[in-house]
Amino acid sequence: MLQKMTTNTDAIMQIEPIGTIQTPYDEKFAVPRQPGLADTPATIRFSGDYNQMDCFRGIEQFSHLWLIFQFHQAVERGWKPLVRPPRLGGNDKLGVFATRSSHRPNGLGMSVVALQALESVDGKPMLKVCGTDLVNGTPIIDIKPYIPYADAIDNAHGGFAHTPPATELAVNYTPEAQQQLSQHSEEFRRLVHQVLAQDPRPAYQKQASSARIYGVSLQGMNVRWQVVDGQVLVLDLNDRREISS
Amino acid sequence: MLQKMTTNTDAIMQIEPIGTIQTPYDEKFAVPRQPGLADTPATIRFSGDYNQMDCFRGIEQFSHLWLIFQFHQAVERGWKPLVRPPRLGGNDKLGVFATRSSHRPNGLGMSVVALQALESVDGKPMLKVCGTDLVNGTPIIDIKPYIPYADAIDNAHGGFAHTPPATELAVNYTPEAQQQLSQHSEEFRRLVHQVLAQDPRPAYQKQASSARIYGVSLQGMNVRWQVVDGQVLVLDLNDRREISS
């Protein structure tokens, strides 16, 4: 189990979210482990003093933005000095600061997204971005422009995570899933396809052949699927809100 | 004046530094506004539960690291929705989230540095990095590996800050400064040269021709200089600790 460790209370700083992001990913399991799903749209809305157009004046000049956010679903579970990155098959342990693990001191993440538009809704700012890998409802702590000459390091070497994960599985559908998906938007169908092609199974389950059925929640829909002969088979989908009511 | 604004107390998070960075830059004025001074060395030491080698296991696989830090010299002064970026000559106002201004909500900065070495000193970790643009004593909040495929965006467009600032001034020395510098290490002499070649004057003073004498503190030495005919002239240097004692 993860442990809370003692803190250095003298140096504690207080920070607060500036806003919240809305994404199609209802849970961490659904979030792609690579930023390749560039057409997954998301929306950021702001709160309090940050909810004014002035704060974002000129941001459209930039094609990409950094989001600093809180891993809000992980933060309660604390952190450990050593973690097992999925990229290493879940076997090797690395120091938490040698990884982008969400279970980390201070619980902050950073992620680059493409900026689509700054819109004004009733005079309040709304940022439309795409390519996000954040769970729906993630608190946003800061937004900074992506500065190519400073941030894009040509000759950087990325250790065990140098290249993107190569796995992309074929995705097939049962007749039932096909019929159900036909009632959804093309955007949602693409989302389901892209998320499952990334193979969201935990690393330690990818080796084993198993008939295990997984569920992943996307935009309020629970999508059930399994891996058959190395390919994803989508079984069916159900509205989570209907199930729980 | 910058104003403290009301905060959303419900959502406040507590975070704490994991360590502190030691750099040659004693004050913000000395810090280069571009990351080109790649051979400026810096050292990060850790505190409390973060001060153990395990937390950094495997970090040497990565050539570059992200530092998330606190703009500790700016944070007390609060923030404003609009700022005047030096890159725009200090005239145009942009939204704070369209800039990397240090006067920003939550006071967090991020900067990429090259990793030189992870050393163990009495069994405790010490990270040696270079290329930093942080003031000496800056609190470090998080360290993450630089992941090229996710962080280096090839086709990003950086608005007003797309390319590095072009100004690099010639640096000349008075006989007195030359004599004083000869008693310092070659590393220190290079630091003085590189920092002043970047022209640390505020944007609004760069246009005016003026005999104004500036002082910049580097590694505890106060270096005095002025701009003469578009070139930096280093006048002399004094040990700040001797002055103040």
TrEMBL record, chains A, B:
| Annotated CDD domains | UPF0066 (cd09281)
GO terms (molecular function) for this protein are:
tRNA (L-threonylcarbamoyladenosine(37)-C2) methyltransferase activity
Q: Which GO BP annotation is one of this protein's?
A: methylation
Q: Keyword Transferase, does the record have it?
A: yes
Could you tell me which InterPro entries the record lists for this protein?
Answer: TrmO-like_N (IPR023370), TrmO_C (IPR041369), UPF0066_cons_site (IPR023368), YaeB-like (IPR040372), YaeB-like_sf (IPR036413), YaeB_N_sf (IPR036414)
Per the database entry, which stretches of residues form a coiled coil?
A: none
Keyword line = Methyltransferase, S-adenosyl-L-methionine, Transferase
Domain (TsaA-like) spans: 15-155
The family classification in the record reads: Belongs to the tRNA methyltransferase O family.
What is the designated name of this protein?
A: Putative tRNA (Adenine(37)-N6)-methyltransferase
The upper taxonomy is: Bacteria, Pseudomonadati, Pseudomonadota, Gammaproteobacteria, Alteromonadales
